[in-house]
Predict the structure.
Amino acid sequence: MTLSLNDVSAGQGAAPVEGLPAAVLWDMDGTLVDTEPYWIAAEHELVDAHGGTWTHEDAMSLVGNPLLTSAQIIRERGGVDLPVEEIVQFLIGRVIDQVRVEVPWQPGARELLGSLREAGVPCALVTMSYRELAEPVAALAPADAFQVLVCGDEVERGKPDPEPYLLAAERLGVDVARCVAIEDSPAGIASALASGAATLGVEAVVPVEPAPGLSRTPSLELVDLDLLARLVAGEPVDLMPVSR
């Protein structure tokens, strides 16, 4: 059975839930926090400074990519004559500056993290951002929300390869097939699905298209512990509004 939007109410239930995931594996940018506008602004600033042109479509094409991959595209398409490592450090620096001013949590994110902590479900942050950015974000989450961080500068093969999610499950000591991965980008969703985790796509900056084995929601506000239990049990969920 596929759930519809009317089958799930917003907010977190207080009753005990059977069959919870062994862990929840969270993407960061776009999924947990709405930092994509920070990245996009930094990209435009850098390309403009080098006399290049950077479009909205260019920015959207980078969402969810490993940072070195994105930096190479910026170098080639945006005309930025810098080593890719310097491009990455510029972007990270600008985003960190913005995060220090405000961490833009996605609606429902902190509440769901709190519910998982209370239920004893461990969480990992699985991000292509580097640790120097991931740690400040994780530190501002509810206390003890994340037991593991897997960052883009710690993997050999970034998303869409499954390595980041497989590594997160390994570090937590759980079976990835008993985990739920929460993602927003095509590259991240591909990574999570390939790992074998039950995958929930949250529509943020880019559309989340239907795909075999993928569950979808327009907002984390519609996600609670019962829904996560359904996902890990193999029940497909599609909460996206029906187009008219």
